[in-house]
């Protein structure tokens, strides 16, 4: 039994497009995120360095004028002067000395300054900074210790105990960052569109040889064994195309050889059957004469004569069947159609063989089942099925005919031949119409030629009909033939 493998859902094209698109999305998003991170860091770092440098320069310019130890008023003046050194930015400055502190703006609580940052400036005597979020947006807080003669880190001067803190809003930097985010988003959408288009083009390029392979495979299945694929490149798909071409060539050669062998076998069977007909005709004439004189012969000779006569009849039937099969194989079998009453033809077929009392019939009324058929081939169909039921089944044997009218098609004459025997074994059912098939390999002799059911099936198919074999639920076999009832117009 041939199995059809299920195809994955969505199709290979869609899966390739999705895979390429996902890779493109991940690459685009990752690149955008890394680019944004690097640009944001550089932007904030540059703004931070600028603020710290300007703040340190402002402290250096004002610090020499501070008297020590400073009073709160001195700290207030110092913070205000430092704030004024940068007029382009909104600086808020806080100066501390010991427990004293003052801000450049009266009443400014300097909430952004954390105790940890204040301690770091006092204990480590180092410049510290921190980005914080406030209710008005992000801000940068910077703390610088004031040394005698210098505010540098190199420790060349002693700490004065004076510390200065700066809070500067980073609205402009945040605006730059937001603009950067918007730019990345705007760039990401076109990049994704381009990536999807590239994915479609890549999928199309990958699937082109796959589609060609599918089309070639379909042509091979339709019998065009000369089909070959054009091979381009040396990748895996090219290798697959090479393999397909080699397989197709081997298949074409094998099929050609099988056809040559089959043609020789058919020609041999036809030639042998033809050559046997003449001597068989002579043998049949002789056995007819001997049969007439058998009553006057001694018993042993009479038995031998009757045996020869029976075997001659069987051999003649086998030769006739072989000739008939040869005509079917050669496509030389034709129909001689005539409009007849199929029910009446069935009655005559049974009566001519003396089966009218042996086989029960259930036939439609006269002229109900009229159609154009070949009367001789219809007789062969009925005789072979009825004879098969009598030989291999058990009585009672019944033959029934009904007329069915499927919508949109010719009426059908359905003939069923049923016996009451043991039925057909399940492993034999698929082969009942095969030539010379024997369900019991130990049986080397049969009453028939082994071609009766095969010839029956060929005659049915020649009429455009169907034939099936099955087992009845109550026991016995049933053969069903459906013939179209075409009428004269």
From TrEMBL:
GO terms for biological process: osmosensory signaling via phosphorelay pathway. Keywords: ATP-binding, Kinase, Membrane, Nucleotide-binding, Phosphoprotein, Transferase, Transmembrane, Transmembrane helix, Two-component regulatory system. Residues 204-256 form the HAMP domain. Residues 271-487 form the Histidine kinase domain. Pfam families: HAMP, HATPase_c, HisKA. Signal peptide: none annotated. Its EC number is 2.7.13.3. GO terms for molecular function: phosphorelay response regulator activity; phosphorelay sensor kinase activity; protein kinase activator activity. It comes from the Bacteria. InterPro entries: BphY/WalK/GraS-like (IPR050351), HAMP_dom (IPR003660), HATPase_C_sf (IPR036890), HATPase_dom (IPR003594), His_kinase_dom (IPR005467), HisK_dim/P_dom (IPR003661), HisK_dim/P_sf (IPR036097), Sig_transdc_His_kin-like_C (IPR004358). The keyword Kinase applies. It catalyses: ATP + protein L-histidine = ADP + protein N-phospho-L-histidine. The keyword RNA-binding does not apply. GO terms for cellular component: plasma membrane. It is found in: Cell membrane. It is an enzyme of class 2 (transferase). This is Sensor-like histidine kinase SenX3. It comes from Actinacidiphila paucisporea.
